[in-house]
């Protein structure tokens, strides 16, 4: 099979770390390139369309957060944000940026590669599925409800599509967290509840009688069309 290699961009100003990361990715069958200057990242992404970006938060000349916001104006490329502070991750999640994943330094290089693979696999799943008045498309990460496109954050989309695919099954907050974030240490139960709350609001905005995401008291949530 002559499949085109996926291209990983590593944005990291610690030379040893970026060299090791690139080496790991190449070893795992990816093409990898590193950048260490925050100022050049957005242009590079525009011209080279990487398949996934590992983005350090603290960089010379331009911070990861600014870079990320710029990239999102023209691309939906998955981004794994790396930071040296655990507290920083909670704050970032609170901002609901739509980052695919967060990792805290020091991290295991192997773990980063595994996470990147999972994200890319998830993004590769094509199928559009339909249940009741809801249509989910994994490829475009879009959801259509009563013929109206829902504007969802990546976390909301993942919760909805996961419950949707497992219709009728009840999932605890822990199980949902495991599915939504690979690093659930840093996410609180409340984060799941607040994603669900926002998600329901978006559904009932379209159809006020919608109750396809049901709470099962003391247990968790399930989807029923
Ligand atoms: Ca740094």
Features of this protein?
Rossmann fold; alpha/beta; 11 strands; 4-stranded antiparallel sheet; 8 helices; binds calcium ion; Arc Repressor Mutant, subunit A; 225 residues
Textual characterization of the structure:
This protein is of the alpha/beta class and 225 residues long. It has 2 domains: 7-123, Rossmann fold (3-Layer(aba) Sandwich); 128-223, Orthogonal Bundle (Arc Repressor Mutant, subunit A), CATH 1.10.10. It has helices spanning 15-27, 41-48, 64-71, 86-94, 109-124, 154-165, 173-180, 189-206; strands at 7-11, 31-35, 52-56, 79-83, 101-104, 128-131, 134-137, 142-145, 148-150, 213-216, 220-223. The strands form 3 sheets. A 5-stranded parallel β-sheet has the order 2-1-3-4-5. The chain is elongated, with a radius of gyration of 18 Å. Bound molecules: calcium ion. Residues 13, 56, 58-59 line the site of calcium ion.
Radius of gyration from the CA trace?
18 Å
Beta content comes to 15-25%
Tally of separate domains: 2
CATH superfamily of the largest domain: Response regulator
CATH class of the largest domain: Alpha Beta
What's the structural blueprint in terms of helices and strands?
Blueprint: E1 7-11, H1 15-27, E2 31-35, H2 41-48, E3 52-56, H3 64-71, E4 79-83, H4 86-94, E5 101-104, H5 109-124, E6 128-131, E7 134-137, E8 142-145, E9 148-150, H6 154-165, H7 173-180, H8 189-206, E10 213-216, E11 220-223
Helix pairs in contact: 1-5, 2-3, 6-8
The chain binds calcium ion (CA).
The site of calcium ion (CA) has 4 residues, from loops.
Brief overview, please?
The chain is an alpha/beta fold and 225 residues long. It has helices at residues 15-27, 41-48, 64-71, 86-94, 109-124, 154-165, 173-180, 189-206; strands at 7-11, 31-35, 52-56, 79-83, 101-104, 128-131, 134-137, 142-145, 148-150, 213-216, 220-223. 41% of the residues lie in helices and 21% in strands.
């Amino acid at each position: 099979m002559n499949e085109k290699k996926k291209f990983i961009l590593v944005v990291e100003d610690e030379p040893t770390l970026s060299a090791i990361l690139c080496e790991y990715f190449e070893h795992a069958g990816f093409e990898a390139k590193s950048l260490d200057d925050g100022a050049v990242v957005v242009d590079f992404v525009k011209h080279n369309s990487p398949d996934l970006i590992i983005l350090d938060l603290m960089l010379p000349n331009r911070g990861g957060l600014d870079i990320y916001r710029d990239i999102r104006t023209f691309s939906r490329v998955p981004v794994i944000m790396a930071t040296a502070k655990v507290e920083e991750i909670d704050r970032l999640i609170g901002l609901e940026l739509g980052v695919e994943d967060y990792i805290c330094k020091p991290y295991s290089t192997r773990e980063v590669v595994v996470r990147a693979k999972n994200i890319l696999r998830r993004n590769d799943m094509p199928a559009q599925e339909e249940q009741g008045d809801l249509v989910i498309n994994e490829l475009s990460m879009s959801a259509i409800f009563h013929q109206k496109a829902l504007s969802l954050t990546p976390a909301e989309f993942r919760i909805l599509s996961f419950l949707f695919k497992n219709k009728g099954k009840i999932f605890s907050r822990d199980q949902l967290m495991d599915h939504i974030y690979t690093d659930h240490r840093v996410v609180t139960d409340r984060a799941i509840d607040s994603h669900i709350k926002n998600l329901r609001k978006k559904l009932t905005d379209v159809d006020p009688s919608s109750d396809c995401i049901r709470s099962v008291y003391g247990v968790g949530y399930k989807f029923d069309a």
